[in-house]
Amino acid sequence: MSFSSDEVNFLVYRYLQESGFQHSAYTFGIESHISQSNINGALLIASDFILIVITSEDGTEQRIVESLSLIDAVMPDVVASRQQQNQQKPLLKNEPHDTNGDEGKANVLRFIRIYQLTYFIGTAAPNPGIESTMEVDGSIEIPANKATVLRGHESEVFICAWNPTTDLLASGSGDSTARIWDMSDNCPSPNQLVLRHCIQKGGTEVPSNKDVTSLDWNCDGTLLATGSYDGYARIWTTSGLLDRTLGQHKGPIFALKWNKRGNYILSAGVDKTTIIWDAGSGQCTQQFSFHSAPALDVDWQTNTSFASCSTDQCIHVCKLHVDKPIKSFQGHTNEVNAIKWDPQGNLLASCSDDMTLKIWSMKHDTCVHDLQAHSKEIYTIKWSPTGPGTLNPNMNLILASASFDSTVRLWDVERGACIHTLTKHTEPVYSVAFSPDGKFLASGSFDKCVHIWSTQSGQLVHSYKGTGGIFEVCWNSRGDKVGASASDGSVFVLDLRKL
Questions:
Q1: What domains are there in the chain, each with its CATH number?
Q2: What's the pTM?
């Protein structure tokens, strides 16, 4: 069985309706233009579609009774165990196989991801069945002439990141492309370079048709690294040329980071491993296989040591050329979504689906702080660029956390106390980012809003509502522009000068 994109959208819409998520169905129907499609709904059965998890190599459909998370769906061992529980013959291998060309699975995984996102919209929205509206003081609303909307992507735009030295904004999408947008003042209309992610098939290069899941600029802004659902990492020049292809993971890549020196790239994948790559040669320098489930995030502590987190609820700190973790942290009771070292590399923050935020130190075996204030999953965290050893040494170090409970919290980590709770968002918050001077925090939510807050007072100072749910927000190096990427394929840049 195969589905067109319109049919997939209709099935998601039907399933959400029948499951009682009326607000989610309404929101998804508007954004996917259900009313404009020519689908005969009577011929499609949503309840069957949710059961399709993966297509085996011989083309037969494998089904389970309950829906899977995105992580579960790309783990054949999980799928197989659930099939056994349902007294079905397990037809899947125990090792993750290459995802290249598996279009049936890609469609299913795309559905599962969309289902998860719209599910959280439904559970977090304050007014089910009614599209939420934001009431903002007109004096802080960013006018339309200060926003540049960038169109070109053909699917959700999950990530965006500013070049550290110039006003080039990179974005990565479900359309299997990354794009580099020139937002410099001397460019009258933004140019875009399209970085097409292709694979070898039948001796020729064809589009991978897989999501670009992560991207990161090197320290001097000369190279952009991308990670993809096709299992490959790639290095690109600022002119859009493919410089290196890094192929060692056996499945989707979820996170990817350059070290500060710019000689190594670190990646994390569904194959449960993390890899340090030599950026110059594109070769795998060392592969670490310490997690028992997919690795979700990585962050460098130094140029040769890093931390990784996983759905196995564990955090490992590893070092190049050392064959065992130099430290392991356990304490979370659900998957760990993100980890971040503070600017000096002394404290490690982690956030989890268990609704807690934990602070760890290499000097202790248990967490230094267990911060419990959010009422739903915490999706991401960021440290401020302030405190000792930073360009802003006279400001206190703080930590921001973004949650599916629609709030952002700012923490004084030294005291282990929440200093501000930012509550203007009405749906899950997927991204937060500090301005380079640490005075402001941008947040992006699936309520389509980007809010900019004072980190000192916790007050909302600027706000802008886009046309799709916000996946990512980021500041340029001067701190006068904010970029954002959205679920409707749009990318936009807010110019904060003279506001």
A1: 1-56 (1.20.960.30), 144-495 (2.130.10.10)
A2: 0.77
